[in-house]
Amino acid sequence: MNQLKETDRPPAITFGSTVGFVWASLSIPLIFHSVSKSVGNWYPPYLAFSVVVSFVAIFGIWLMKKWGFYTYVAFIILNQIVVLSTDTWSLFSILVPAIVAGITFTHLKKMS
To answer: Quick one: which H or E segment has residue 82?
Structure first.
């Protein structure tokens, strides 16, 4: 009677979502770090906002919702503009989100 409900979520989406959740979680300590304040007083609240948006978008991806993918991609673009304009860009600022988005994109037709 206590059987697990089967999901139609591909293992790649589970993996990508897990990576996305971990990546967003790693940003939480940066909110309180002095380096983020050196960028500007607006940057720590922006980081907090970005963590929340990332969690919501990745949760949508986890639920196999297209809005999760579109929200995540839109936020990647916004975030790249922000990090480029503040000279805080690094390869990792695009690499991990691009991997998560790429994995999700390959399964977009299966999403509702």
So the answer is: helix 66-85
Q: How far is CA 47 from the centre of its chain?
A: 12
The total number of residues written for the chain in this structure = 112
Residues 62/13, Cβ–Cβ less than 8 Å = yes
Distance CA 79, CA 85 (A): 10
User: What is the per-residue pLDDT across 64-73, written as a single tens digit (0 to 9) for each?
Assistant: 999 999 999 9
Of 82, 78, 35, 30, nearest in space to 53 by CA: 78
pTM: 0.85
- Beta carbons within 10 angstroms of residue 109's beta carbon: 7
